[in-house]
Every structure is written in structure tokens, then in C-alpha cells.
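Problem: given the chain below (174 residues), write out its structure.
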Amino acid sequence: MLQTFVVKFIDFPKILIAFVNGPAVGISVSTLGLFDGIYSSSNATFSVPFTRTAQSPEGCSSFVFPSLMGSLRAKDLLLFDRKLTAEEAEQRGLVTKVINEKNFQEEKDKICQQILSLPKGSLLTSKLLLQKWTKDTLHQVNAEEVETLKQRWLTEEFVQAMMEFMRGRKKTKS
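Solution.
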């Protein structure tokens, strides 16, 4: 199911825009590199707790994030559980633009209207051309990431890490 889910992002033929207005965690972050534009409120955060949960990257992030951010900054996020602020995500190339949270809805509407005003045929043709060079690679990356995750899910380390992770979540909710 995970592989099929990510394939839908890779193969999505229309323009795919994300508006992040709060904490984004896990696959909601790892798949962002497959979007055509990512707009974030100033209060948003981005984290992928793969290592803390004894897992490995997903959503093509092992390929896309180094391309966007550079190897060291991608490793900081993917390996060392670094949570990024909206501004840091923009600096690293994960976010197109940060919007002040007070104006988020208004700016979101303006961005949507601006994108919708563009010539549709040209927009979709250009997206197809931009995707052409990496689409096969993204499918290979997705398949490899899912196979690696399947192996991780069978380890005792994963079970222990998930129990710790869930205990930590329960403590913060109390």
C-alpha cells in the first residue's frame, strides 16, 4: 500500500501544491519533494522521525532530499531526527515560500488564483517535461525504500523503538 500511495504522487499528472499550516511529520514531509510547490505558514514545522522509530526513509526522500538540500542537510533531517522550522525548510529548498500565519488563508487563496490563471496546457506540458528525466528513477527509489522498510519492520529494534516512541507521545498528551 505504501508503494502504491507514493506512486500516486510520482505519477500525478496535474499540478500538485501543498499548503502546510502546522506540524508536518513523517510521510506528509517525506513526499513533499514530489510536489510542484510547497507553501508553509510561519508556524509550521517539518520532521521525519525515521531513525528514532528505527525505520528508514520513504516517499522518495532518500533521493529527492539530497537533491533539494545537499547531502549534509538532507542527512541532518533524515538521519538525525532534526525538526525544521518553516524558515529552515525554505532555506533548504523543501518549501517554496513561507507565509506569515496571520495572512495564511488570504495568501493561499492568492497563490491558488495565480496558478489557476496560468495557461493549463503549457503548465501541464512543462510539468511532464520536468518529470520526464527522473520519473523512472523515482519509481526505482520508491520500490527500494519500501523493500528496506519491510526489512526494518521485522527487526526487534523497530518494535522497541516504536514502543518508546508511543510512550513518549502518551507522556506529552498527559
